[in-house]
Amino acid sequence: MDLFLENHKMLTTFFNMILSSITLTEACDVYEWSPNGRPLPTYSTGMIYELIKDHQPPVPWYSAVWSSRGIPRHNFVTRLTVLDRCPTKDQMLRWGIQIDPTCILCNATSETRDHLYYECPYSWSFWKELSRKVQWNPSRNWSTEFGCMQAIRSPKHERLLVLLAWQASIYLLWTKRNNRHHRQQYRSVSSLAKQADLLIRNRISGIREINPSLSSKMLQRWFLN
Ligand SMILES: *[C@@H]1O[C@H](CO)[C@@H](O)[C@H](O)[C@H]1NC(C)=O
Ligand SMILES: *[C@@H]1O[C@H](CO)[C@@H](O)[C@H](O)[C@H]1NC(C)=O
Question: From ligand 1's centre to the CA of 112, what distance in Å?
Answer without folding.
Answer: 18
